[in-house]
Amino acid sequence: MWKDVKDTCFYLSYSDICDYEVFVTDYLSIWYVRLPRLKFLQCLKDSNTLLHMKDDVMVNKAVDILSNPNDIKNANTKVETNSLTLTMTKQFGYTFKLILNLSEGSRELFFLKITQPLIQNIQQLKDNEAELCDLLMKKDQEIKKLRTTGQTHSHEETVIFNRDTFLRKHNDYYRIPDKLPSTVLDKVVFAPETVINVKPESLNGTSDVKFNIKAEPNSQITDTLTIEQIANVKDENEPKVKRELSTNLSKERKKIKKLNF
C-alpha cells in the first residue's frame, strides 16, 4: 500500500517479507532500496550516531516510521541524478532519524509497482460499477411489476435510475474503455531490480545460502584436480602406454622373423 510522506509530494511503500524493501514515487519516477537486516541495522546506526539501544528496538522504531510515513515530525528529500535521499524524523521522547539512499528504478519497475496496479484498480471499479447499475435497473423493473399488480408501498419510492445520465457525470473517468486489454492487466514484466532471495541473511553476518555449481561436460580436469591427483593420473596412464609400446614391438619382430625365413 502506498502512503504519503508528510509534507512532501512523495508516496512510500514498504515491505519486510524477506529483506527490507522501500519504494518511493512521485508518480513520475520511482526509487527503491533493498537492504538485508544487517545492512538495515547499519543504516539505522549511521542515521542515529548518538543513540545507543538494542538492535530490535532500533528496527522497531524504523518500521514504525516506514509503516506510517505521514505520522512523523518531518521529512526531507533530495533528488539527484539517478538517486533520491529521503530523511524522516520522528519523536519517541527523543529524536529518531531514518536516512535512506534510494536508486532510481527502471521503466519495468515503474510499470509493475505503479502503472499496472492502477489499471487493475480502474478495471475493478468499472466491473463493480456495471454490477451496481444492473442491480439498480433490476430494482426499477421490480417496482414497475408491483405497480402493474396494484400493490402500494407505504414508503416513498426512489427515482427511476437513468444509466446514461449517471455516466455523463464523470466524463474523464468514462473516457477509459469499459474493458481494458488483458495484455496490460495481466502482463508479466521482469524488472532488473527484482531479486528473489532464497533465504534472509543470517544474524551472525554470514549467509546461509549454499551455491551449487554444476560443472560443464567440457570443463578441464586440471581446474579441479589437486597436484597429488594429477600425479596419480599420470602414474596410472604410464603403464598403459608402456604395455601398448611393448605389444607393438613384439608384433614387428614377428613380422621380421617371417620375412627372414
UniProtKB/TrEMBL annotation:
Q: Where does the record place it?
A: Nucleus
Kindly state a single biological-process term from the GO annotations of this entry: double-strand break repair via nonhomologous end joining
Name recorded for this polypeptide: Non-homologous end-joining factor 1
Every copy of the XLF-like N-terminal domain together lies at 9-102
Q: Which protein family is named in the record?
A: Belongs to the XRCC4-XLF family. XLF subfamily.
| Keyword terms | DNA damage, DNA repair, DNA-binding, Nucleus
GO CC term (a single one)? DNA ligase IV complex
Q: Where is it predominantly found?
A: nucleus
Its lineage reads: Eukaryota, Metazoa, Ecdysozoa, Arthropoda, Hexapoda
Q: Which InterPro entries match?
A: NHEJ_factor, XLF-like_N, XRCC4-like_N_sf
One of the record's GO molecular function terms? DNA end binding
